[in-house]
Amino acid sequence: MGMNDYQALLQEMAAFVRVADSGSFSSAARQLGTTPSAVSKQISRLEKAMGVRLLERTTRKLRLSESGVEACRRCRQMVEAARSVMDVGGQFCSEPQGLLRVSVPKAVGHRVLHPHIPAFLERYPKLDVQLLLDDGHVDLIGGNIDLAIRITDRPPPGLAGRPLMHVDHVVCASPDYLARRGAPSHPRDLARHDCIYLGEDVNDNRWKFMRGDEATMVTVRGRYAANHSGIRLDAALKGIGVGSLPGFAAREALADGRLVQLLPDWTFLASYYGTAWMLYSPSRFPSPKLRVFIDHLLDCLKGCAGAAGIEVG
């Protein structure tokens, strides 16, 4: 295969990555601004040129074949290399500019990042920021994401990362609720309380706690569940029950006495407990817009995490 043949298949390779990430021709077509049949033809051309089947098609879904897994890994490298080429111009700009796409969990985006965005925009007038609030998995390359913030103790391999802040989780209630129902002295006492929990998963009402070497789990119940920390905060303030909240969401209400933290000598091991990591594609020359945004966040949230860069994976 000659050089011209390789070049003719670059779009097909990029389309293949989109299909692999989205799991369907129709979803990839929406992202690429084309039709599912056109994407299907691109994949067929790539398979014919390579002489292997990249996707195993069933009536319900697509999945990568063994050869497709390896081909997708290399096509990702090509897509990332193309993004790096486009960033070259930014290396020589006198000031950062362009669009910065940041994926962040909903509560962190609302209560931690958003308050610091206005000052960033004022400081860098040629930069635009798009916050994508999403608690799920995100693909940086396929989703064209510059920076993802995720709470995890095991950052995914193949990405560069820096710790942003520690995220704890607390259980708390209003003074009015505690006057009526009393305060628990041990996590197992929560089984007798009305609890406000996440409610996204069948295990969300199984609260885990740790104190030193002692670990315990209690199945809680309540009449209200909500997958938004702001709603759980408001419900706790209204005395509906004992709320489970990220520490940053409850901090102001705890400081002014509208809420009282319960079981402070226990660590509540919730899904939002751990380290918030800033994750991005590894590169010898990160784009100026990414560098200044990371520095801005670290400066605004200094004291919450170490500032040393860490390569993960």
TrEMBL record:
Keywords tagged on the record: DNA-binding, Transcription, Transcription regulation
Keyword Transcription attributed: yes
Domain of life: Bacteria
InterPro entries in alphabetical order: LysR-type_TF_proteobact-type, LysR_HTH_N, LysR_subst-bd, WH-like_DNA-bd_sf, WH_DNA-bd_sf
Annotated Pfam families: HTH_1 (PF00126), LysR_substrate (PF03466)
Domain HTH lysR-type: 10-65
Sequence similarity: Belongs to the LysR transcriptional regulatory family.
Protein name, per record: LysR family transcriptional regulator
Species of origin: Chromobacterium phragmitis
